[in-house]
């Protein structure tokens, strides 16, 4: 039924794998100041504090019990079995989508597993948390790598690819995102504008004035396997499950 699907994921899809979201109760932004740990200005002022913030995330991601959940696995299955075009755009810097098997994936806010040369923008895979020895091999003198994450005030990655996928998709699904950070929060408007069906999956009920046509209230790990089966069976999404 559908030909082109764009999926946007946020911290909520990884919550059931044990990773903290940003804005829920006990979210990361309750404990850390955005301007200190997630802006270029914060990094210029105190790089060690910013590195520590991402190193803490690193330690958490590399605990043995952090695994992709049924939500990540359902999206990987959709990618494998869906015959049309599909792009998963994630705001998450964890690698749980990859570990579930997703390949047509774009990390619009960067990846924790990489450092970036501030001069050439070349990225380097990191095998361990950030430290003073993490320098690039592309410049002379070698530059200290910065986290390959998009901070507030910086341009997200791959916007041109995302934009053209949104322009032509016929189904847009947002999963586990509060829709507070732009430009990701505006993708639903673009998809609506181009006539796509727009669906939101969230633990919370639909917000008043939501731009989404359909809302599925529930855990990503429970809603997604059901939604993916529906798509693969060629059924139109038409229900509002609240
Ligand atoms: P938020 O923490 O803002 O929102 C998480 C959303 O997931 C909330 O709407 C929850 O209700 C929902 N949620 C929680 N558990 C869920 C579950 N099991 N199933 C379904 N939904 C669930 O996280 P994001 O929207 O991803 O950017 O945040 C967007 C950006 O803000 C992040 O990428 C990060 C942050 O600041 C940067 O740092 C640039």
UniProtKB/TrEMBL annotation:
| The reaction(s) this protein catalyses | N(6)-acetyl-L-lysyl-[protein] + NAD(+) + H2O = 2''-O-acetyl-ADP-D-ribose + nicotinamide + L-lysyl-[protein]; N(6)-succinyl-L-lysyl-[protein] + NAD(+) + H2O = 2''-O-succinyl-ADP-D-ribose + nicotinamide + L-lysyl-[protein]
> What keywords tag this UniProt record?
Acyltransferase, Cytoplasm, Metal-binding, NAD, Transferase, Zinc
Question: Quick one: which residues bind substrate?
Answer: 54, 57
Q: Which InterPro entries match?
A: DHS-like_NAD/FAD-binding_dom, NAD-dep_sirtuin_deacylases, Sirtuin, Sirtuin_cat_small_dom_sf, Sirtuin_class_III, Ssirtuin_cat_dom
Q: Where does Zn(2+) bind?
A: 117, 136
Give the Deacetylase sirtuin-type domain ranges: 1-234
Enzyme kind, highest EC tier = transferase
Instruction: Give its localization.
Output: Cytoplasm
Quick one: which residues bind NAD(+)? 10-29, 91-94, 176-178, 202-204, 220
Protein origin, superkingdom? Bacteria
Report the leader peptide range.
Answer: none
| A Pfam family reported for this protein in Swiss-Prot or TrEMBL | SIR2
Recorded hits in CDD domains, A to Z, give: SIRT5_Af1_CobB
- Active site per database record: 109 (proton acceptor)
Any single GO molecular-function term of the entry would be: acyltransferase activity
> How many cofactors are bound and how?
Binds 1 zinc ion per subunit.
Q: Which Gene3D superfamilies match?
A: SIR2/SIRT2 'Small Domain, TPP-binding domain
Cofactor(s) recorded for this entry are:
Zn(2+)
State its Enzyme Commission number(s).
Answer: 2.3.1.286
State where it is primarily located: cytoplasm
Provide the domain comment. 2 residues (Tyr-54 and Arg-57) present in a large hydrophobic pocket are probably involved in substrate specificity. They are important for desuccinylation activity, but dispensable for deacetylation activity.
User: What functional role does this protein have?
Assistant: NAD-dependent lysine deacetylase and desuccinylase that specifically removes acetyl and succinyl groups on target proteins. Modulates the activities of several proteins which are inactive in their acylated form.
Q: Which family does it belong to?
A: Belongs to the sirtuin family. Class III subfamily.
Protein name as catalogued: NAD-dependent protein deacylase
Q: What's the gene?
A: cobB
């Amino acid at each position: 039924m559908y030909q082109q699907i764009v999926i946007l994921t946020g911290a909520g899809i990884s919550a059931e794998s044990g990773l903290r979201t940003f804005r829920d109760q006990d979210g990361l932004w309750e404990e850390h100041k955005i301007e200190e740990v997630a802006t270029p200005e914060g990094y210029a002022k105190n790089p060690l504090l910013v590195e520590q913030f991402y190193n803490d995330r690193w330690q958490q991601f590399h605990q043995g019990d952090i695994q992709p959940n049924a939500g990540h696995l359902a999206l990987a299955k959709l990618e494998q079995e869906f015959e049309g075009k599909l792009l998963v755009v994630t705001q998450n810097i964890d690698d749980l989508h990859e570990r579930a098997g997703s390949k047509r994936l774009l990390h619009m806010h960067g990846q924790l597993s990489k450092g970036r040369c501030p001069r050439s923008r070349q990225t380097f895979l990191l095998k361990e948390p950030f430290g003073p020895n993490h320098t690039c091999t592309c410049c002379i003198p070698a530059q200290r790598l910065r986290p390959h994450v998009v901070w507030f005030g910086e341009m997200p990655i791959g916007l041109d690819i995302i934009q053209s996928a949104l322009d032509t998709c016929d189904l847009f699904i947002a999963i586990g995102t509060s829709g507070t950070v732009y430009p990701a929060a505006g993708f639903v408007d673009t998809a609506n504008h181009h006539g796509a069906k727009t669906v939101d999956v969230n633990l919370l009920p639909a917000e008043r004035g939501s731009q989404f046509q359909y809302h599925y209230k529930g855990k990503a790990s429970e809603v997604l396997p059901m939604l993916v089966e529906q798509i693969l069976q060629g059924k139109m999404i038409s229900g509002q499950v609240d």
